[in-house]
Predict the structure.
Amino acid sequence: MTTLAADATARATLERLDRVGWWAVMAAVAALQISIAAAQIAITVAGLTWVMRATIAGVPALPRFAVPLGVYIAWTLLSAGVSRDPSVSVPDTKQLVLFLLVPLTFEFARGARARTLISIALTVGAASALVGIVQYGVLNYGGLGRRPQGTLSHWMTYSGTLMLVICAGVSRLLFDTRDRAWAAVAMPALVTSLALTLTRSAWVGVFAGVGTLFLLKDRRLIGLLPLAVALVVGVAPPSVTDRVYSMFDRNDPTSRDRMAMLESGRAMVRDYPLTGVGPDMVQHVYPRYRVPWAVQPSNPHLHNVPMQIAAERGLPALAAWVWFLVAAVRGLWPRLRRSRTPALAAGGLAAIAAMVAAGLFEYNFGDSEFLMLFLVMITLPFAADRDGGLP
């Protein structure tokens, strides 16, 4: 076979692999708000395609924030290996496979494809929001014990994904010059469904994410936030308004228990500062560290992302996580002015603000469906500019 023929064959193979990888990434993004199993299957297909493509085209490129993310992954594996019980911690590290979404999105969602992925997330999110509204209005999902959960298995996961989709939708409304109609149509259902989940951490996250978008667009828009909150409180059912007021009640049991968890987490970090107690081990050692005034006898996690990471994986893992967020923000910031898709960059920044704010009250970074959508949203701006000269 001549060199020209071999090159043509290689190009044709790369094009086929690129199409397969792209369809698999689209399937993963569509499925992550519906079925974690289906999303994981799609990620596996995309991952195998990515590896096959790399054997032909060479080592794939990565966004700069992948370096600290790699350090975080490596320290997590170390923490699992020296855990108080590796038989518990090592299997828990399987969630790290989801971080493959960063290179997969970066490789297969290049250029205009990035906008398509956000449109898919918005569409599936709107459909899931309608399911949640039906659950509340028709199936009697209501109260703290049985909240709307849409197409997902738990209301916390559901509210977290709705939070990110709202950030993506508002970003498109403020920063895009086309395709804004669908985001405007979907927004009432998304906001209503999020309110009905009664999930305060996600409400705080939306406030932070949308507030970030307003600041980026025009700081005068911040004045709309209190008006929006007043409107929601004015028309919301009593279960929602009572939940809003409970955010400012120091005697609220869940608020008191979160403070108790922080005290327990600090004690864990003090005893295991370098590698933590091990992934998934907090719930096993919590009774030992539980303070007397805690409400719950046990907790699966500490309802605070920085504290959970430090307690589980050690202070170096927390430092790597902060480094990852700083690197992502530093990469997204110039794209607001120089990118061809500023709405994606703004949405990525809003997603980070929302995740961090909500993550002070909930371990959302450890929620698989939430983590997948978050990683996609912060990677898409970099993928969209692969050919635009931006680093």
